[in-house]
Amino acid sequence: MSLIGEARAMMRYIEQAWNRGCRAALLTIANVQGSSYRQPGAKMMVTSDEVMHGNLSGGCLEADLREWAKKAIKDGEPLLKGYNLSDTDVWSLGIGCKGSIEVWITPVNKENCFWKVYQDGINKNKHVSLIAEIPSGAKLLLDENKNTLIRDGDVPEELIEHEHNTSLYHKKTNTIVYEGRQFLIDPINLNEELIISGAGHDAVPVVELAAKVGFDVTVLDPRETFNNMDRFPKASHLVKDPEDTDPTRLAKKWWVIMNHQQLRDEACLKLAVNSQAQYIGVLGPLKRTREMLDNINQNFNDGPIHAPVGHDLAAETIDEVAVSIISELMAVRGKRSGQSLHGKQKIHN
């Protein structure tokens, strides 16, 4: 899948390249067989003056990809570059990842209004999907209702409804073959929205780390001296009083409740339970959470409540506690157990 934060960052770097008079290419993993460091949808960019941002491997492919990207920029034509990572002697780097990947490399020209529409969509936090013939680069962009926003070249819209095209519905990047032509289906997935209830000192690393791993974070706390952008520069929104906020902004979100003040915790816990939350993590002892649920006439069956919040990492400091909390959020988001990878044959599947 493609993460909107990564796509947004790559387009921002590409725009910076345009502004300094350079050209750029966008690189997307189109297909993976076996083991790979990144999965389909992962992105990086390369400019004509050899600036790179992003990564598609652990550092073993980027130098070669830069050269192929420069070729695509120079020729003005997209290309598909494949790598067999099973060979331990690839470029004498001893990679041996036991897999193969294909990377679609396409020039992103300032003059092509397709990329302006693409950038506008992701900057406005819209769920858009790119469908591109590979390697030719004929493409179209769809909105969340599968309406065509813009077309650049010959892409049959009928393939959207094609019985083999499940990528759009499952929001996964994939390649399909339709009428003898290969297409990249690349839905841009929106970030999950996380509400941190409490703006204490221990909330600072939680907000920072959550933003780094792809959550859009709202901090909820009535205390202006604590709840401000100086303390939470990575937060997308700051809310002092939920009653002053559109209720839909708080509905179906992820919550971490860490006010360290029981009445505020109870109020926020009740709000979270009644908002069809996707996840509710409560900091503090299990006994305290049970007491709060009793006080608000709720129970653990009334919502996806995780208490105490976090993974058992022997966390002590506020930074360690933040890692514990965010690691559990990532595991739940990715539908994973959160257990050690030791002995696991496949990491991503």
Automatic annotation (TrEMBL):
InterPro entries: MoCofactor_Util/Proc, XdhC_CoxI, XdhC_Rossmann_dom. Residues 18-81 form the XdhC- CoxI domain. Pfam families: XdhC_C, XdhC_CoxI. Residues 194-329 form the XdhC Rossmann domain. PANTHER family: ALDEHYDE OXIDOREDUCTASE MOLYBDENUM COFACTOR ASSEMBLY PROTEIN, XANTHINE DEHYDROGENASE SUBUNIT A-RELATED. This is XdhC family protein. It comes from Salicibibacter cibarius.
